[in-house]
User: Fold this.
Amino acid sequence: MILSMTGYGKAAAEFEEKKIIAEVKSLNSKALDLSTRVAPIYREKEMEVRAMVTQGLERGKVELNLWIEQQNQAEACPINAELVGSYYRQMQEISERYDIPEPDDWWHTIIRMPDVLSRNEALQELSDEEWQVARHVVQQAIDQLVAFRRQEGEALQRKFEEKLDNIAALLASIEPYEKQRVEKIRQRITEGLASIPDVEYDKNRLEQEMIYYIEKLDINEEKQRLSNHLEYFRRTMDEGHGQGKKLGFIAQEMGREINTTGSKSNLAEMQNIVVKMKDELEQIKEQVLNVM
Assistant:
């Protein structure tokens, strides 16, 4: 069963007066493109967090957030008074030195400066007990995302099966027109020669040339290869996750055979069928980019 690269997971747990929350999202990408935002107290463990994500998700554009919500809201965002005073004095000095007008609202300006509301959290020491809880929360979020990917992968596989069946049915519908095409080609050449007055030609040589021409337009090999690619695509999906790039290559080969069939199909009905096959294949190509 294939996996989708799109997914979402979120988990939370309580530790003492904190609520530890992890959220992870992923979109399609050729490789693992990971970005993390981790609460200051957990920054020393950021490499471990990244290793967990790399091992669990393998591929995709992944964004992970790990943060804390204080259960006691009065203590959720402690203000660092010393840092506020330091910012205030520095800004006054800069204002006087460079003749820059002072802000009308000092408080609104300073409260937005770095670490005014998070310095105390950064200074807290991370205990082993808290980290084990936080680590479990991160793993739960990753597991949820993997489950989401699996569910999306099942939906993708059903969609692919439907499109493959449609292409196979369209390919089979070409066959009745092939004999008509041969007769029409033969008739068109014969009528063209008949329309030229006072022309003499070797009928045996004409027959040989028509056979050669018709053989060049034969699409049996293209039909066989396309059928093989359809079956190979199905088998590859059943091999499990990690086959996204391979499925993309198979879809490209399917496109080549459909295009060649179209270039050889000098009959309007056959060309219409080829257009429909291309439409079905384009939908596969769009979705295969989301496959792990």
